[in-house]
Amino acid sequence: MIKMKVCMLGAFAVGKTSLVQQYVNSIFSEKYQTTLGVKIDKKSVSINDQTLELILWDLAGEDEFIEVRSSYLRGSSGVILVADGTRAETLDIALMLKQKVDREVGEIPFILLVNKADLADNWTIDQTRLEQLKQDGWFIMLTSAKDSANVEDAYLALATKLQQTL
Amino acid sequence: MKTQYPDNVINKILQITLETHTFAYLAIDRDGVLLNRSGNIIDLGLPDWKTAENILNEALFLSGMLPLDSGYEFIPSWHVNDNKVVDIHLFQDNDTTWAVLVDKTEDLEWQSQARQKANELRLLQHEMEQHKQSLQTPKDSSSKLHCSFFEALDMMALHQNKDGSFELLHPVSDNFQQIFPEAFANQKKVYPQDKFLFIENFLIDAQQLWDLAINHQRITSGPWIETLAHGDNVALEAIAINWDKHKLLFLAIQDASYQQNHDFLQRGRDEVLLNNILEKEVHKRTELIRAREEEIALRLVCAADSKDSGETGAHIRRLGLYCELMATHLGWKQDKIDEIRIAAPMHDIGKIGIPDAILKKPGKLTDDEFTIMKTHTEIGGKILSNSKSSLVQMAREIALNHHEKWDGSGYPQGLVGEQIAIGARIAAIMDVFDALIHKRAYKSEMSIDEAIQIMTKGRGTHFDPDLFDLFINLKKEVTEITRLNNDSIC
Ligand SMILES: Nc1nc2c(ncn2[C@@H]2O[C@H](COP(=O)(O)OP(=O)(O)OP(=O)(O)O)[C@@H](O)[C@H]2O)c(=O)[nH]1
Ligand SMILES: [Mg+2]
Predict the structure, then answer these.
(1) Does the pLDDT of residue B131 top 50, yes or no?
(2) Would you say B61 and B34 are in contact if contact means Cβ atoms under 8 Å apart?
(3) Yes or no: is domain B117-254 CATH 3.30.450?
């Protein structure tokens, strides 16, 4: 089985841990427990008769207290950038982290998840910026780790991109 | 004792162990006289004991403990005072001396402690340097002592073999039996890199360090989290070090300071999130109130203007938007921008006090009539005077001053240049512009270019030249506002 390392990157509290937990263990918790350190989970996914094992690196959220160590990105095959649709500023952090990945690892497959889609009433993220990114070729999905909308599909989308690189 | 490593290696391991934990170390003789100390004992809530001082009376945790029967005693959660709770480990060092290790378990002043942690570590490191000499003098029973240390501190020390596998250096605590059971099956060949993906990645950096073989150098992995068989999570950290060409790797279960850092981070982030929510709520409500204020203002202005058939609701709406545009490009703060948008439409509110015979007179006004007409500025100023609201204050300035001219030839006060409030200078330009390009009962409309051409004659005489230039620069945006706002709001 081919193993592929995928880093979950984004500002704090955007739902990185929740997305992994929903995808791997089908669970969701309302309570916010910030991740201090790295947590690695695995899940296999089959695409076109090929099975990939995704090694998901859930990294501590980036903010003024904590920065993602470059060594954690090493060896990544893909990246899942996560922003929180209810906190517009988290998109800037996702974009910044994308640049960091480009610098440290080079251009590897990635997708951007705008999470917490179930909270559409509190949406503050700038739609035109998302449209702009889409025009620039970004693959963007609205997800909810809470009601699991698009979660499976999001990982599948990245896995498909990863498989194309093989 | 399984390990064959020389005592200086073991001592180095001990030193690292001390450095990576927040605790104090005391050596005492059989009578309770302090022989040696390191670490910040004051921070742990203990008195500032000096060497050669007998501490038996004050160190209550020692009462009845010496001499030790077992060679090792553990006193968990000893309450030093209301705030400080520590774990105490007692070791028999040799026949006549005992080592006391005081380990911080919990600290109710967690917040300041977390901040101090970095300083503490540095301090401890410094002190350890000073005690290096005594530490590096091996004692007969030191191996036994060190092993107990590792067990008590939830650390695992490994040494890398030539083939890349590792050898376990000492027996480890039960906790590691759960975390890394494979390490106990064959202690001479342990593969942490196969067990933990995180370590596999860390060993790339560790290997570089080991290859450089610079003595004493070390790197830490940062914390990572493992889920145990029964579902609990445990935070670990790895440390790699070069010591006399020995490639040493430590795996440490994170101690109370990790929890403190976590709690500190959690609180900080919870607070940021809560503030975000509150700010959004406040913003939403302010917007609501602003929108309501704006609507009331516009409706009242419309009511007043209905006396004057020339002015329409769409005109006053546009005037607000033009002024908003200008203010935005002048770099005003958002609340001021909102204010001028709402205030500018009230510029002619004083017309409410002008008799209909004059206001609605077709054709030219006589001099006397014009004198009366001009008083609408002062009437407006009066209506809007003495308000504590900065919005109404701005509205007053605009109402009173929007017929003033840059060269001082305007009315009612004949103010010159920057004596005229900036809001009024902006509104003066935009009011004239919008009037020119729209049809009134007494005149037909002009094109935007014609209007600008005519108005340019007033640059520096009627209008503030800088603001006028800005207006010209914003022609495209101004035109857009004109195009989109033809519907009357009242
Ligand atoms: N409503 C809603 N809440 C979500 C969703 N995803 C995550 N959350 C909540 O958002 C908070 C943060 O989620 P986490 O998954 O811990 O976020 P994280 O990105 O791992 O945070 P850090 O580890 O601190 O970087 C938690 O309270 C979750 O319950 C979602 O899709 N919808
Ligand atoms: Mg997390």
Answers:
(1) no
(2) no
(3) yes
Second CATH level (architecture) for the domain B7-103: 2-Layer Sandwich (3.30)
Q: Tell whether pTM > 0.80.
A: no
> What's the structural domain count of chain A?
1
B269 with A72: Cβ contact below 8 A: no
CA-nearest residue of chain A to B261? Answer: A36
| B7-103 and B117-254: identical CATH topology | yes
User: Which residues sit with their C-beta closer than 6 Å to ligand 1?
Assistant: A 10, 12-18, 29-30, 32-35, 60-61, 115-116, 118-119, 144-146
Tokens read off for B132 = 């290096």
Distance between CA atoms of B490 and B474, rounded to whole angstroms?
A: 28
Cis before B192? omega within 30: no
Q: What ranges do the domains of chain B cover? A: 7-103, 117-254, 307-484
Q: Which residues of B touch A122 (CB under 8 A)?
A: 280
* Residue numbers of the domain that contains A19: 2-164
* Phi, psi (degrees; rounded to nearest 5) at A3: -95, 135
| Ligand 1 atom showing the smallest separation from residue A143 Cα | 31
CATH code for the domain in which residue A87 is found: 3.40.50.300
Compute the distance between CA of residue B312 and CA of residue A150 in angstroms, rounded to an integer: 51
Confidence (pLDDT) at B70: 66
- Could you please state the CATH topology (level 3) that the domain comprising B307-484 is classified under: Hypothetical protein af1432 (1.10.3210)
Q: Is A35 on the interface with B (CB under 8 A)?
A: yes
Q: Mean of the pLDDT values across residues B230-257?
A: 88
* Facing residue for A69 by CB, picked from B222, B261, B273: B222
Pairing, β B72-79 against β B34-38: unpaired
Nearest by CB to A37, from B204, B222, B269: name it. Answer: B222
Closest Cβ opposite residue A37 in set B197, B225, B272: B225
Does pLDDT of B315 surpass 60?
yes
